[in-house]
Write a structure and sequence with these properties.
alpha/beta; Rossmann fold; 3 domains; 5-stranded antiparallel β-sheet; 18 helices; 38% helix
């Protein structure tokens, strides 16, 4: 049986499997109810006369209908092409021109109209809601699982997005790996697992967790409004959920701000416990530190956990971008493990994932089952195993660049310790080569500066071919705040890694202004182009450091 057949078999139940809230009201669906929706969507697709292997684009916001449409497309032997609904219509049109879908399933009329405006010759478009007509498949045939299963477009940090082809074998193996790690996390737990889900389902890691949740028959609460994420997170009372570092950073800062406003004894205990946690990590713990931590665990941390996430949380799972050690230690201090994972769309979302029994802050865990990893030239991480994609859609030359002698070349720099736990240093293509010939990975330095600037949104280093490094800093910040942060960071760095100039940019880089990818990663080349004048100014008049 395929992983889809396994999912459909598990859904033959009256247990709740999805809940979601929206402006039109709360909605939930049980296992058999979801199967009914899938059957209706499959019947709709059959009436359209689509052939096995045809591409079907799915352009919609998160929701139960998205899940049913996704399952139906795959079950009918079509290749699903999930697209990010917040991406610019012109970018979406380019992706669809690349994969030539036979049908475009749009979540609403606004998305459909945006595509038609950017691509007047687009193939047939339908609204996802129209797929559920009440007329379903009666004989419930097994899934006609295609192979390949999906084309997921990369976020394109430095160029045009490429369509990553994923096979049934890729996905089946990954679901076994993720479920295995969750088995360890949930050992001893009885009853239905609860999962909160806010990340776009079209992203590889988010999609894999969705399918894993279906296999585990978890109750998934889908967030459809990011402005309500805190409230819905607490109400869902999840056992675990997938995160990006930006949310965890905001959660940490929100607690800091609230306690600073309230002041008093709770703030004193909280501040002392935070300092003790840092000293303990650095091997400088004192007897007093143990006292403050014990007091905080008894009187302060339980209240913070309850107000922040609820009482059931076993762990936070974090990926997509590096998480600062400071933030990971913060949640561990509160008694909330943070499991980090590393991977790319080309590796079916994951290469590594923390073992819940042995989490090392600052690292992303060991390789998952049956996956080999090693370091190549320039400490580049190379990977091979059943999770590796077969290639990019219609791009044999691009495929040949990254798949060589059986190994996938990730483009990421890393290191591995004696226990097999990996650490990601940064992207090779992001390396800054100074005029002196020194190679500088910007990410670790950017992270250090951000730690010193609580009000900053992003820090981006520049300096290719220049005599020194400079930084673009976004956020509502005064120049003296940035200077103070650099004064704190620079002394601990070699001379060629010290940041000698900076420019404050009040508007943060975002998806909407085209300077972040759909996954929230920096588009460094585009940032350099947009701020070319400001960068030139930093090298005409150097600010003293």
């Amino acid at each position: 049986m395929s992983y889809l057949d396994d999912i459909f078999e598990r859904l033959e139940t009256d247990a709740l499997v999805f809940e979601q809230a929206s402006d039109s009201g709360a909605r939930s669906v049980r296992g058999r109810g979801l199967l009914k929706q899938v059957a209706e969507a499959r019947a709709f697709l059959r009436r359209r006369g689509l052939k096995k292997g045809d591409r079907c684009a799915l352009l919609a916001h998160n929701g139960i209908d998205w899940v049913a449409a996704d399952l139906a497309i795959m079950a009918e032997g079509l290749m699903v092409v999930p697209l990010y609904a917040r991406q610019a219509p012109a970018e979406l049109a380019n992706m669809m021109k690349d994969c030539s879908p036979a049908l475009i399933c749009c979540g609403d009329a606004g998305l459909r109209d945006g595509i038609l405006q950017a691509w007047p010759q687009a193939p047939a478009q339908i609204l996802v809601g129209d797929m559920f007509t009440g007329q379903g498949i009666e004989d419930k045939p097994l899934a006609a699982e295609p192979d390949p299963v999906a084309i997921i477009y990369t976020s394109g940090t430095s160029g045009e997005s490429k369509g990553v082809v994923l096979t049934a074998a890729n996905i089946g193996h990954m679901l076994g790996c993720t479920s295995g790690r969750l088995d360890i996390l949930m050992r001893g737990h009885s009853g239905q697992e609860r999962v909160f889900h806010y990340l776009p389902l079209c992203f590889a890691g988010s999609w894999i967790l969705l399918l894993t949740s279906l296999l585990r028959l978890s109750l998934v609460t889908l967030n459809t409004d990011l402005t309500k994420i805190s409230k819905e997170m607490r109400e869902a009372a999840p056992d675990y959920f997938l995160n990006v570092p930006a949310l965890l950073e905001r959660m940490r800062k929100a607690v800091d701000e609230q306690l600073w406003k309230s002041g008093g004894f709770p703030l004193t205990v909280y501040a002392k416990a935070k300092a003790a946690t840092v000293r303990r990590q650095e091997g400088r713990a004192t007897i007093a530190d143990s006292i403050w931590l014990s007091l905080a665990r008894a009187a302060i941390f339980p209240t913070i956990r309850k107000k922040m996430i609820g009482e059931n949380l076993k762990a936070l799972i974090c990926g997509s971008a590096p998480l600062t050690v400071e933030t990971q230690l913060y949640f561990m201090m509160l008694g909330i493990p943070v499991l980090q994972g590393y991977g790319l769309t080309e590796t079916t979302a994951l290469c590594t994932l923390d073992d819940p029994r042995d989490v090392e802050p600052g690292r992303v865990g060991p390789a998952i089952d049956s996956v080999e990893m090693k370091l190549g030239e320039n400490e580049e991480i190379l990977v091979r195993g059943p999770n590796i994609f077969p290639g990019y859609w219609n791009r044999p030359e691009e495929t040949a660049k990254v798949l060589r002698e059986g190994w996938f070349h990730t483009g990421d720099q890393g290191e591995v310790d004696a226990k097999g736990n990996w650490k990601i240093a940064g992207r090779i293509k992001n390396l800054i080569i100074l005029g002196s010939g020194h190679n500088v990975a910007p990410e670790p330095i950017e992270e250090k500066i951000l730690e010193q600037l609580p009000g900053a949104q992003q820090v981006v280093l520049v300096g290719n071919g220049r005599g020194y490094l400079s930084a673009l800093v976004t956020g509502a910040l005064a120049a003296d705040q940035v200077q103070a942060a650099l004064d704190a960071v620079n002394p601990g760095l070699p001379h060629y890694k010290q940041v000698r100039a900076f420019q404050v940019c009040p508007e943060p880089f975002s998806i909407d202004n085209g300077l972040l990818t759909a996954n929230g990663k920096l588009k460094r080349d585009r940032i350099a182009q947009r701020f070319q004048s400001e960068i030139e100014d930093m090298y005409r008049v150097k600010q003293a450091v």
